[in-house]
Write a structure and sequence with these properties.
Largest sheet: 6 strands, antiparallel
Mean pLDDT: 96
Distance between the termini: 36 Å
Radius of gyration: 20 Å
CATH class of the largest domain: Alpha Beta
Oligomer: single chain
Strand order of the largest sheet: 20-25-21-22-23-24
Structural class: mainly beta
Number of domains: 3
CATH topology of the largest domain: endopeptidase fold (from Nostoc punctiforme)
Length: 285
């Protein structure tokens, strides 16, 4: 039996009483179960650390994303995001069986879901960039999606069509408020921003800052050497990450400004060092 300390519980669904069947032989649990694949039917759904409304939100699931459910108990489903493997609890009311695989993703920062193909009709809550939809018809400038509703066709892209510049995508988030655990156009945190922008460009990316630092890109030799920075470099601190838009400008979502901003990298380094310590690495994709 493999020592459980080597399996990150953020990415591996196991508890003393229950574990995913594929972890049999790797972790100890009273029961091992196969997952049920469900789909998010709300614009966004919180993934929480505990099955309580007041529990911390570790991340979010977006409309159309899949959630591998290993347990449904009362109002809560415990499982794992199919998008990035993150484990936690999601309110059951936001999930439903998968009827049709997504054909498109939202390419705009956000788009409205209309009950009819008419921009003058009051829409439902908006869907965020990277929400997944199954297009089943078209009418004028709109497409109809599985589950009901119409979206502006130009706000979507096929699932296999990606943006080419993740920095330009990140710049679309300027001004979006800081939200711990957020990965939605209404609110995002630093690692959520990196994940959302890379996903839009077809690059797989884990959720938390430490996971991103360990898996993304190639580390430059000296993280203190800011003279080598260029557009697209990722700058990591303990618990924080930002994106260089050019040789001297950092774009990041942060709790100082409580929104997504651009600022001189030299100023950011001096300020962040006081709370989170020095830059730990520079990663180039």
């Amino acid at each position: 039996m493999t020592d459980e300390v080597h399996l990150d519980k953020r990415l591996n669904p196991y508890r003393p009483d229950l574990a995913a069947a594929y972890l049999r032989g790797e972790v100890e649990a009273d029961r091992y179960v196969e997952c049920e694949d469900l789909q998010v039917t709300a614009p966004h759904a919180p993934l929480l650390r505990r099955p309580e409304d007041t529990a911390p939100m570790d991340t979010e699931l977006l409309f159309g994303e899949h959630f591998r459910v290993y347990e449904t108990k009362g109002d809560w489903c415990w499982g794992q995001s199919a998008q990035d493997d993150y484990v936690g609890y999601v309110p059951a009311r936001f999930l439903a069986p998968v009827h049709k695989q997504p054909t498109h993703r939202v390419a705009a920062l956000r788009t409205f879901r209309y009950p009819e193909p008419d921009i003058k009709i009051r829409p439902a809550l908006p869907l965020s960039m990277n929400a997944k939809v199954a297009v089943i018809g078209a009418e004028g400038k709109f497409v109809e999606i599985e589950g009901g509703g119409y979206l502006v066709a130009s706000h979507l892209s096929p699932m296999d069509a990606y943006a080419s510049d993740f920095v330009s995508v990140a710049e679309e988030f300027l001004g979006v408020p800081y939200l711990w655990g957020g990965r939605d156009a209404r609110g995002v945190d630093c690692s959520g921003l990196v994940q959302m922008c890379l996903e839009r460009c077809g690059v797989a990316c884990l959720r938390d800052t430490d996971l991103q630092e360990a898996t993304l890109g190639q580390a430059l030799a000296d993280p203190r050497d800011l003279d080598v920075l260029k557009r697209g470099d990722l700058i990591f601190w303990r618990g924080h990450v930002g994106i260089m838009t050019d040789e001297t400008t950092l774009l990041h979502t942060n709790a100082t400004h409580m929104r997504t901003v651009k600022e001189p990298i030299a100023e950011a380094v001096l300020r962040i060092e006081k709370s989170d310590g020095p830059v730990t690495s520079i990663k180039r994709l």
